[in-house]
Amino acid sequence: MTRLLRLLTLMGLLGWLFGCDTNKEPYQRKEGVWHFEEQAMPGVAELTVLNRRFAKSATQAFFRATPITGAEPAAFEALDEHHARDRQQVWHADTYRDSQDYFTTKRIRIRRLDGADPASFMLLREDYARDAKHVWHDGTPFPVKDAASFEVLEHGFARDRQQGYYLRTAVPGSEGASFNVVDAQHARDATSVFHAHMDLSASPPRVATRRIAEVDLASFTALESSGYARDIHRIYWRGRPLRDADPASFALLPSGTPGADAADARRRYSRGEIVAP
After folding, report:
1. Is 240 a domain residue?
2. How far apart are CA 43 and CA 33, in angstroms?
3. 58: Cβ contacts below 8 Å, ≥ 6 apart
């Protein structure tokens, strides 16, 4: 019971700090004045609530309590809690916090998506969106070969008709039409296998991709999203073949094994490097 009370207290504190009372309707009229949560919206006589983040009056559109400059209220519609459009424009809106007043102030960011075509604009999974010519993630555009065919896959991978992508970065040499996910770090197309990960050792961190050379497609298998993979001839660590590793006996070691994460009949390995027995 004590543990439950502590959890409820913590949830209440987080709700107070971050305003995450999901049961309360955020737009409300109090004593004749419209509010978003506790923020008054003076001068707004009538309000049409579109969802929990967007609303409009006869003369303005709003994200939370903030007017959206240049919006056309009559045609304005909410697509989800971050995207909205009218006949001419598309917007992405969210909140963020600054380190100087992180716990006390929630700031508003409203961005018009330059060049977005409202008629063809559509939401995809995992904060992606596209129109006939552009693709965005969380409101930020990134280059693709064919926006109209772009689709989101799993584990940060995506594709269009021409090539594959990992975390909004093109996978060099990939063929989009047959590009598919193997696991959280590997993808393949009709002729190749690729490894991709975020290289946190780089400054700044960057996406690293590698086409695995001379891989046997028919027997290729990724080993539990560990970074290791095998085919009938080789063992790979992050797309790099481990010289002399034995595919037949190679196996991952139980999590928490001291000093090693994999082994074959002759050696032990840690993150692709041979370690002492």
Report:
1. yes
2. 8
3. 46, 73
Q: Provide the residue type at 123 as one letter.
A: L
Report pLDDT digits (tens) over 140-190. Answer: 999 999 999 999 999 999 999 999 999 999 999 999 999 999 999 999 999
Structure tokens at 131: 């129109």
Nearest alpha-carbon partner for 247 in 271, 231, 262? 231
Q: Are residues 33 and 84 in the same domain?
A: yes
Q: How far is the C-alpha of 90 from the C-alpha of 110, rounded, in Å?
A: 11
Pick the closest to residue 249 from 266, 261, 229 (CA basis): 266
Tokens of 206: 């960057």
Kind and range of the H or E run holding 146: none
Domain total in the chain? 2
- Residues 188, 262 within the same domain: yes
Mean pLDDT for the stretch of residues 105-131: 96
Range of the domain at 159: 143-275
φ, ψ at 53 (rounded to 5°): -130, -20
Alpha-carbon torsion, ordered 258, 264, 269, 273, to 10 deg: 170
3-state secondary structure 183-227: CCCEEECCCCEEEEEEECCCCCCEEEEEECCCCCHHHCEECCCCC
Q: Concatenate the DSSP letters of all residues of 18-77 into one string.
A: HT--TTS-SEEEETTEEEETTEE-TT----EE-SSSEEE-SS-EEETTEE-TT--GGG-E
CA distance 47 to 204: 45
Residue 200 has a pLDDT of 95
